[in-house]
Amino acid sequence: MGMVGGGQLARMSAAPAAALGIDFRVLATSPEESAAQVVSDVALGAHDDEHAIVKFAEGCDVVTFDHEHVPPPILEKLEARGVAVRPGPHALINAQDKAIMRRTLEGAGAPVPQWRVVESAGAAEEFADEVGYPFILKTTRGGYDGKGVWRIPDVTELQRVMTVSLPPGAQWLAEAAVPFVQELSAQIARSPSGQTVAYPVVRTVQADGICSEVVAPAPGLDGDRAVDAQKIALDIAGALNVTGMLAVEMFDTGDELLVNELAMRPHNSGHWSIEGAVTSQFENHLRAVLDLPLGSPVMRAPHAVMVNILGGDVGDLYSAYRHVFARDPGLKVHLYGKEVRPGRKVGHVTAVGNDVETLLARARHAADYFSGAIDE
Predict the structure, then answer these.
(1) What is the rounded CA–CA span in Å between residue 152 and residue 144?
(2) CA gap 258, 227 in Å, rounded
(3) Which of these, 49, 125, 163, 244, has the minimum number of CB atoms within 10 Å of its CB?
């Protein structure tokens, strides 16, 4: 199996690949990338370099991804050469371009916020006249972790933001601001033969556009609402013919669920599953793209929480282990081997058990110590 991308998702896929006896190859941009530090079979090259991708895929039975940025024409050429690309380019384009995603979701009957592609500030003002301020303005391509997304409170900020240069091939996407009570993520795994499994729906919390913590299952979420969220994710996976993991991020308004984003790969909202589920999202992604029977997504404990470690004042993250492990031996810590930069996701902490608030307090304390926000 070849995985394009050398980030932390590829890094966390390496252990289940080894356990399953899968020959696992990674395409990274440098030997210092997260996955390249721990995977023995590493090729170096860019995700948009056709020659590098074709050469990387030689000898691979399946090619999959730890990000969605490989241009579809390159993937179509791989398929023409007989390489199984999972998820395929016709599915993956929906995770690459938000306008295409919105059109596809509407066509599939999935609930989405009111939206429109706008080509000018004037067109965006007309949209604002319909939905009101504030509204959300996004680039259709290239955004992640809050980048490429702006909350527009007035016409002055609108005009300022729309002077920003768009990434290649991108357009402006305007969306109504959704007054949600919580943000949810519904993850499913789907194989080429159509087998699917659904993980418990989780609550996610964002800070400055970056996921800060995840609670599984989402506390207080009505059982019927949770089933609705899983059904939406399963329907989308079928409509788009997704293979592998699919994460569907949603707004829960209290009255309805609205789809916000899609990710066709393991996702930050599923990191809890490494310790918290019978089969992690990483193992089920591998099983799915290889068309193996899928593993159980059932939780090992009543609750699991994951808190991201963001870069802060502590440059040597290893130095924090002695305090964190001595204080709380029940925690699980994953560091990604990344250079520490302020606000960058450099690892995560997981705790599993019976009481959500206790678990969150434990995981938050450890994450804060790694970042330098606290020193005891």
Answers:
(1) 18
(2) 14
(3) 163
Spatial CA neighbour of 217 closest among 285, 294, 298, 275: 298
Within 13 Å and on the Cβ side, how many CA atoms surround 1? 26
| Domain architecture of the chain: domains with CATH | 2-85 (3.40.50.20), 114-176 (3.30.1490.20), 182-371 (3.30.470.20)
Q: Please, what's the b/e burial string for 281-315 (b: 16 or more CB within 10 A of its CB; e: otherwise)?
A: bbbbbbbbbbbbebbebebeeebbbbbbbbbbebe
Could you tell me which residues come within 8 angstroms of residue 165 by beta carbon, excluding any fewer than 6 positions away? none
Handedness of CA 110, 111, 113, 115 (dihedral sign): positive
Cα separation of 276 and 257, whole Å?
A: 25
DSSP per-residue codes, 3-22 = EE--SHHHHHHHHHHHHHT-
Task: Give the residue carrying structure tokens 């560091």.
Answer: 335
Cis bond before residue 192 (omega within 30° of 0): no
CA 363 to chain centre: 20
Place of tokens 């058990």: 353
Q: Do you find a cis peptide bond into 134, omega within 30 degrees of 0? A: yes
Report DSSP letters for 65-102, one per residue: ESSS-S-HHHHHHHHHTT-EESS-HHHHHHHH-HHHHH
What pairs with residue 257 in β-bridges? 252
